[in-house]
């Protein structure tokens, strides 16, 4: 990110959202709302005095609510740009009309309570969608505590506990009492491969990051014992299976094949009750800390983003590629490409590969002044068209648009045109047109009749 921010050809718009997207490949019109962070990007020096002196503390989203942040804060360490943002919902200046400490102490005069959202409209040649994913809410599993037990956490929460920049400075402790855990239980497939309560698909990354967590726990706490309840170990990547074996043999992780039926508290311990399907018996494991490997889900606003961009999504909310094998990065909207887990659950290597593919597609698109197109595209005979616009309604690619032309006598007339760079030649408009004024180039009635006559001779 730092390298990108220093590149003259890259403009980073943080704390911004896309509101509208129009146009077509090579000529997208995009409206962006740059939210008011109430701190001037040009004036701020990143000294940190404002958030050090801010008296308001609220749970930190980046630390998964296990740590605290201020009402004026930098979202996460090494954020680019290193400029804080003010949380209006908790800042006393906006909630109570008093305080203003950050503005008083800012020597650069960067804090601006009157700053408003900025609307940016610009043109772009291509769009790469890389909006990421959300995590499954494990609270629906009442048998796992449903959020009642402080020492039942998710894998991402454990990641923050392990991190040196996390709420405990990298020292792994139980959220309930701050003690070091001696026995840790991991439960995989929480929300994944569960048709009744969760999602039917595999989240792809849980097996490997659970093994990584078991290794890191052993390195931080040599006396800890890790037990991992799993359905199947899916370690299909390069050297993944060897890593899992090393987790078992060198780091002493105990894998138990079976589902967990219940977690309950006994004193200051958690009792994990489940099944060992290989041994054919019920098991109860005493744990100081339980870590849930929650499923990867599509972003909560994925459908709104898809509607804005004009791209399809599947039944789970993940964006759909043009073809799963032949065009895994492109979408039905020409010029819009996919990268990362917005398309499906992906690990880091797969995400890097798809992002590199999307970047290559954009580079190839921009490398030439002319663009090759499919020869089979629709054409409209404007002299016959009745302007019923039925074709516009059925076109899945938004390739038909209305334009206004000026005739020789000076009068203006509206007509429909086909954007050839967007049209995929599916023929939906041809079959819908009531006045038969749309033809598919290369597939006109005369050409089809000539082909039939040639076959019949």
Summary?
With 457 residues, the protein is of the alpha/beta class. Helix content is 22%, strand content 25%.
Strand proportion:
15-25%
Sheet with the most strands: spatial strand order:
10-17-11-12-13
The CATH C-level name of the domain at 134-297 is Alpha Beta
The CATH architecture category of the domain at 134-297 equals 3-Layer(bba) Sandwich
Count of separate DSSP helical elements:
12
Radius of gyration: 28 Å
Mean pLDDT across all amino acids: 93
CATH third-level topology of the domain at 134-297? FAD/NAD(P)-binding domain
Whole-Å distance between the termini?
67 Å
Shape summary = globular
Instruction: Characterize the biggest β-sheet.
Output: 5 strands, parallel
Number of β-strand runs:
23
CATH homologous superfamily label of the domain at 134-297: FAD/NAD(P)-binding domain
- Indicate the structural class: alpha/beta
The helix fraction, in percent, is 10-25%
